[in-house]
Amino acid sequence: MSTIIIDNEGDLLMEVVEWDHEQEWPDRKPVIRKTQHFWVSRQVLKDSSRVFKNMLGGEFRERHQDSIKLQDWTISCIKIWLQALHNVRQDYDVPIEATWHLAKMGEYYGFDILKLKDWFADWYQRQPVDRWYINRESDDVPNPRWLLYPCWIFDHYKGFMKATEFCTYHYCGHITEHNPTRFRDLHLPQRIIQQLNAAKGRLRTVLHKDLYGPNDKLLRATCTCKAESLWGYEKALTDCKAWPLERLVQVTSMAVILDRLTRFKYGLPSTACSDCRQNYHSVVKGAISHTSGYFDGLCLDCMDSSKTDDEDADYWSHGELKQSDFVYGCRSGRHGQPTWYYSYMGQKQSKDRMNRSVRMSRYDGDLE
Question: For residue 48, which of 120, 101, 115, 99 has the smallest C-alpha distance?
Answer without folding.
Answer: 115
